[in-house]
Design goal:
2 strands; 5 helices; 25% helix; alpha+beta
Length: 155
């Protein structure tokens, strides 16, 4: 369900994040759901306008990382397709998308219920607001299926 909400929020991002007016193609491109790193179009660092020495400088900074430039995959270190719980890192994505939607007046307030955008929510989840989304204080976006439904704001 969370993926559905995030996909809906992605359409709220400012157009400047999605396309570069100087280019005929989108500046940021994402592979379709369930596709791994092998699905990305690749470019060598020099082809992407990057100094190849940059890769060497970045090596060892993290167990897994990837570098993209203008929608092309330039380098992958580690198993990029490995699944990992992002836990509270989702708050950053939520804040970005909700903030953009507020700026575009697509969301009127942080206290606006999200069921206007996601009408299939049930139970306690129908009480969730955008404030609950950005603070991860509702059960609807908890990534584990066995987590019990609870009233938003309780945690």
């Amino acid at each position: 369900m969370m993926r559905t909400v995030l996909a809906g929020l992605a359409c709220l991002l400012p157009a400047c994040l999605l396309a570069d007016e100087r280019l005929a193609t989108p500046r940021f491109v994402y592979p379709a759901a369930q596709q791994g790193a092998a699905a990305w179009q690749r470019r060598a660092p020099a082809e992407a306008g990057l100094d190849p020495a940059l890769i060497g400088k970045l090596e060892g900074t993290a167990d897994r990382w990837a570098l993209w430039r203008d929608g092309y995959l330039v380098h992958v270190a580690g198993d990029f397709d490995q699944k990992q719980d992002v836990a509270s890192l989702r708050k950053t994505w939520h804040a970005l998308t909700v903030g953009a939607a507020l700026g575009q007046r697509k969301i009127q307030s942080l206290d606006e219920p999200i069921d206007r955008f996601h009408p299939d929510l049930t139970g306690e989840d129908t009480k969730a607001t955008w404030r609950h989304v950005i603070t991860q204080s509702s059960a609807f976006d908890y990534p584990y299926a066995d987590w019990p439904d609870y009233a938003p704001g309780r945690i």
